[in-house]
């Protein structure tokens, strides 16, 4: 029976590869005879590349290639994008942006300050849309915005907010859609066409099969090296690797939106001489203990769980050196986050002592601890389609069993799991920080506001939370870098001291490309590294 199942699996992969080959992965670009650079992805770009709304389901890497912000975040600093110059008033309330003269949308129309106003209108003139982005201080503190003239856009805040420029660099929602792309002057009910000012234009798309992008001939910046690329949707990792080895795919790329390569596969392809690249840490993977759910309201129980989890072994077994064990919620390379956190140790003996102290006893001849006749049991929810999340859950379950804690793990469909975790309806769950340019500003803001993140649900019942939340909000209005640094030291130590957010690893993005490919440079945490990529040079 096992051999029959293996044969069926092989046939399924073969059919997937054959179907992929038949859909033209290596077709000539526009009949020119040029090869179309093809990247395999397990996730579709979304049927509507709406740059403003969450529910559009648009892949962030696709939004980043089609649309531009006023400013961008790169190499740890704010850099020009549609605005080639900007200034902030001495009181930190007024931001003035000068739109570059050469800024045009992909349909050839000029992008000016009036277009920027219309894009801000989409978010700020609709109550529901504005509330959805209230975790962004720019949105929550916006007082007024307007076009001073065709080339100058300005906004005013109700109070200083030092991360404002970082938030404007986010992939969503502060990206510019052309007037022709809007539906009756808005994108709230959908867009007509994804017309942006970014380096690429969506030229062809078939849902859940592929998306093709061509160079935007009206792009204001340095032209991308590639004139065209295709994102091929292959949900099965083995099929994607087979297509890559057959030369039908030019690159396999993994980030949190797409997971096709296990560690062994990545290393094996690297050893075979294919071009490999690994990014710096981009965000942090965590397991969250919801302290609002019994028995996790007990500090000793939470601490015992964390001390009983062998995070080092977990990271080594899952990532094999491609990711390092995290010692804090933010990678120390993130601005203001190198505050000397010690991280959590692995100490199962101390874990057992803490559980005994909390009244959860492990009786002779039984597997799990009990208290007042009730078993010490937790439920861990995860995204069943995500291999890493499944591995986290299984290892967590095994380690907890060693200290007498029963863990039921439950895989769910992606959207249902996301709704559960971000809605607070969980005991234990997987989460991540948000990566650049949002870390640490937006994520800390969300932790201080009701109902925005799993981490907020975990922290809110803890002693001292109100002071933490107040410190977060107060810090955003600070202008003295030393005070900002000191406040981050206080906030990050508070998070560590509550023992409800377990840093596991600092996530990296990884790419394997065909021989002859060069120039793989990683940017934002959720962007495919194609902008500077070259083939055969």
**Structural class determined from secondary elements:** alpha+beta
Mean pLDDT: 89
Q: Biggest sheet, open or closed, and with what strands and sense? A: 7 strands, mixed
Relative strand content: 15-25%
Gyration radius from CA atoms, angstroms: 24 Å
Count, helices: 17
Helical coverage, percent range: 25-40%
Q: What distance lies between the first and last C-alpha atoms, to the nearest angstrom? A: 50 Å
Strand order of the largest sheet: 10-11-12-1-13-23-14
Task: Tell me what the structure shows.
The chain is 31% helix and 23% strand. It has 537 residues and is α+β, with helices and mostly antiparallel strands. The strands form seven sheets. The protein has a seven-stranded mixed beta sheet, with helices on one face. A six-stranded mixed beta sheet has the order 16-22-15-21-19-20, sandwiched between helices. α9 packs antiparallel against α11 (348-357) and α14 packs antiparallel against α16. The relative contact order is 0.14. Mean pLDDT is 89; it is low at 1-33.
How do the helices and strands line up, and which of them pair or pack?
Blueprint: H1 2-22, E1 37-41, H2 60-66, E2 71-74, E3 77-80, E4 83-88, E5 94-99, H3 113-124, H4 127-132, H5 137-140, E6 142-149, E7 152-157, H6 164-168, E8 182-183, E9 186-191, E10 200-206, E11 210-215, E12 228-233, H7 237-245, E13 251-254, H8 263-271, E14 275-278, E15 283-289, H9 299-307, H10 311-319, E16 324-325, H11 348-357, E17 370-371, E18 374-375, E19 377-383, H12 387-402, E20 406-412, H13 414-423, E21 428-432, H14 441-447, H15 454-459, H16 465-476, H17 481-497, E22 501-507, E23 510-513, E24 517-518, E25 534-535
Parallel strand pairs: 1-12, 1-13, 19-20, 19-21
Antiparallel strand pairs: 2-3, 4-5, 5-7, 6-7, 8-9, 10-11, 11-12, 13-23, 14-23, 15-21, 15-22, 16-22, 17-18, 24-25
Helix pairs in contact: 1-7, 9-11, 14-16, 16-17
